[in-house]
């Protein structure tokens, strides 16, 4: 038995009529003969709701003793033993009394669904787990009873029970929701107009999100290419700080408000690998954005605003989300900051959102170096201290006499400061300039470039040596810091690659895009060749740079084995980057091999399917074709017999039997040949513009007169189809519908225009098809129900869908209201066909011949 279906009535607040709507639906189903019971419904002493329970079978509740009191809960075992078709379970988010089998009522509902019982339930928007914080901020009340969002999202149907706040408050005032003694308190607290308006908005937005999901699936199933709404693509700029999680959640909420919104989180690292970001925090943010359905990107760039804007424009983003600066007030003297720069340079096409967070103005620590070791600004200050500092100090000391020892210590301190700021060379410059000034101004004889006392020579030598030593230590420390940071960045990238290898998630194009983003290149391509003298071919390429046909044309190329290379254009990378690039290249080769193995597996699967089809064809020939052949042979033998004198009526009846058997053979053989052509991929439609009313009547030739009602308006636009394939597809659909529809209820074939499509609906009033079997009826050699032998080999619908897809259309099923099945054939209106369906310059065959 399959899983049951869940239908949920969603409301913005108590009293909007969810339970009433659920009971009304139950009465409608009972009137149609559905076995429906009330598993648990709480009417809350509301007279109209209580009246709706009359006439419905109620499963007795289970009594549970808890803390000296007796409580009633849904008797799950009794409902499972009763096993109805539909069970009504009110208040999905309810917490069961301790001692029940499950802690939550939604867990009871899951057991009913698993047992094959359809469930109709109710829930208020404030009980959704993800909205708990928002509802508390609106109403001031923390909801203790919640249900996971995924439980509601998995429901087969979610119907919004809506009511304006004014109408709900009137219902409250009339005593239709709570007892009169509670009305005033409710109206002045939870049921205030502002609360109800905000809760109603939450409910509408949540249901709108579900509608967007249904619409996306519908567009995908029906191959609708026209744009029906705007698509928001939101880039989140991350710094690696704790505020990143707030920004990601904010961007996710922005994306949910638009159709098909997408979140791309990007962390920009400097090319030298130096970063103040926490790897643990970045890993947490990567997990968060992926859990919310977004993607995480790691980009290299020294100019963070420029790199962020380039990334946003490269992915066609519409919005950028940044956090308020963590700088302290005095740090703005170094520049306006990333947020202000991005907002100024974003242009009219990019909206920039600056989001506040708990880390605003708490400081970011020391500025991160930008150069290869100490950074340009830091080296500039070092040179300033080393070259301009000694003359300034000499001018200052000219006013006071501190003695040679103190003067040398002050110059030594200035040299150490130059070393700490700029490293080795500024310190040596400071030592040299300082020693000259000490010699000229402070070492006897004064104002001459000579030294009288040998002890002073030793002091100056020590002074220069100490300055050089300190500068060497600072330079070595900067070198080691740079190497450590770079190795950490490399390890993060290699860890990402290893994870993708284990999970097998990344495709070749995605991996090449990651290479291009990581190293800031214009394009990336994977080249390969079959042998040493064979030409290079491109296995995959991303980016907008110049095309590369050979590795030697690229700015950077990394060989992978003997006959494969990763080629990048944009700039020349330093040698130290090639280690990580080699890992990317090896991973790209693995991904390519995996893709080819998957293609081989698909081809093997297709061959196996072909073998299955051929086996089934033989079975069909040996069984289903035998009946009409036997009937034809028996009739012919009877006519040729000389022992019997046949009357004209008998002779006509035998000839009619021969004709019917031949027609059945022709139909079966035609479907077998069509299925064989579809399986081998030899169906080539000859698309041309045609009126649907030219083809539709011809498709009704094989059914009894009066069994089909045709409704094709003359105002329909022309369609781009192959007339022969369309006639065969419609004939199969109509014959299948007539076969299962009662003789008193003719099949309806109706056509209508919808945007750039034309829909042909074949409606029957037969027994219908369960949802779990709707896809299976389109498989070859499938006949739904107990179709008798001789009713066909089960190829009609498979051939019809194959022909529809070959013409760029679709064939789907729907339930006919009131019972039955509706086949929906969607065709492209004239002038909207894709390039691969455009007609060739010289037609390959006449349409009539193609139809045969």
UniProtKB/TrEMBL annotation:
<dbReference type="InterPro" id="IPR027417">
    <property type="entry name" value="P-loop_NTPase"/>
</dbReference>
<feature type="transmembrane region" description="Helical">
    <location>
        <begin position="457"/>
        <end position="478"/>
    </location>
</feature>
<dbReference type="Pfam" id="PF02518">
    <property type="entry name" value="HATPase_c"/>
</dbReference>
<dbReference type="InterPro" id="IPR014729">
    <property type="entry name" value="Rossmann-like_a/b/a_fold"/>
</dbReference>
<keyword id="KW-0902">Two-component regulatory system</keyword>
<dbReference type="InterPro" id="IPR003661">
    <property type="entry name" value="HisK_dim/P_dom"/>
</dbReference>
<dbReference type="Pfam" id="PF02702">
    <property type="entry name" value="KdpD"/>
</dbReference>
<keyword id="KW-0418">Kinase</keyword>
<keyword id="KW-0547">Nucleotide-binding</keyword>
<dbReference type="InterPro" id="IPR036890">
    <property type="entry name" value="HATPase_C_sf"/>
</dbReference>
<dbReference type="InterPro" id="IPR038318">
    <property type="entry name" value="KdpD_sf"/>
</dbReference>
<dbReference type="Pfam" id="PF13493">
    <property type="entry name" value="DUF4118"/>
</dbReference>
<feature type="transmembrane region" description="Helical">
    <location>
        <begin position="409"/>
        <end position="437"/>
    </location>
</feature>
<keyword id="KW-1133">Transmembrane helix</keyword>
<keyword id="KW-0812">Transmembrane</keyword>
<protein>
    <recommendedName>
        <fullName>histidine kinase</fullName>
        <ecNumber>2.7.13.3</ecNumber>
    </recommendedName>
</protein>
<dbReference type="InterPro" id="IPR052023">
    <property type="entry name" value="Histidine_kinase_KdpD"/>
</dbReference>
<dbReference type="InterPro" id="IPR004358">
    <property type="entry name" value="Sig_transdc_His_kin-like_C"/>
</dbReference>
<keyword id="KW-0472">Membrane</keyword>
<feature type="transmembrane region" description="Helical">
    <location>
        <begin position="380"/>
        <end position="402"/>
    </location>
</feature>
<dbReference type="GO" id="GO:0005524">
    <property type="term" value="F:ATP binding"/>
</dbReference>
<dbReference type="Pfam" id="PF00582">
    <property type="entry name" value="Usp"/>
</dbReference>
<keyword id="KW-0067">ATP-binding</keyword>
<dbReference type="InterPro" id="IPR036097">
    <property type="entry name" value="HisK_dim/P_sf"/>
</dbReference>
<dbReference type="InterPro" id="IPR003852">
    <property type="entry name" value="Sig_transdc_His_kinase_KdpD_N"/>
</dbReference>
<dbReference type="Pfam" id="PF00512">
    <property type="entry name" value="HisKA"/>
</dbReference>
<keyword id="KW-0808">Transferase</keyword>
<dbReference type="InterPro" id="IPR003594">
    <property type="entry name" value="HATPase_dom"/>
</dbReference>
<dbReference type="InterPro" id="IPR005467">
    <property type="entry name" value="His_kinase_dom"/>
</dbReference>
<dbReference type="InterPro" id="IPR025201">
    <property type="entry name" value="KdpD_TM"/>
</dbReference>
<keyword id="KW-0597">Phosphoprotein</keyword>
<feature type="domain" description="Histidine kinase">
    <location>
        <begin position="620"/>
        <end position="831"/>
    </location>
</feature>
<dbReference type="InterPro" id="IPR006016">
    <property type="entry name" value="UspA"/>
</dbReference>
<feature type="region of interest" description="Disordered">
    <location>
        <begin position="831"/>
        <end position="852"/>
    </location>
</feature>
